[in-house]
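Example (one chain per record):
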Amino acid sequence: MISTETLTIQGHIFNAVTVYLPKTTLLTISNDIGYIMCGALDVGLLNEKLADRKIVAGRAVGVKTIDELLKAPLESVTYEAEKFGIVKGMIGEEALLKMI
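Predicted structure:
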C-alpha cells in the first residue's frame, strides 16, 4: 500500500509518501528541489555513481513515520545537499526548509 499527503511547513508545500512493504516502510518527503528519506536511501550511491544528477537529499535512520522523519537528525546528506546548507545532524524539517 502507498499513502501520500501534502505537508505545509512554514507556508511551504512538501509531498510525503509512505510505502508499506513486507517487514519495512519506506518514507520520503520532497519538493521540486530535493528530499529527505528513511534509512533505505543510499547516499553513497547518489554521491558516487549518480553524482552527475546533482541530487539534493538527506537520510535519517530508525524512523517509522513521516512525523519521525521530520524530527529526526539526518545521518548523512549528499554533496549537493551540503551546497544548500544541509548538514549531518540537522533535523529533517530544518533540512526541508533549506530546500526552498
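Caption: The chain has a mean pLDDT of 97.
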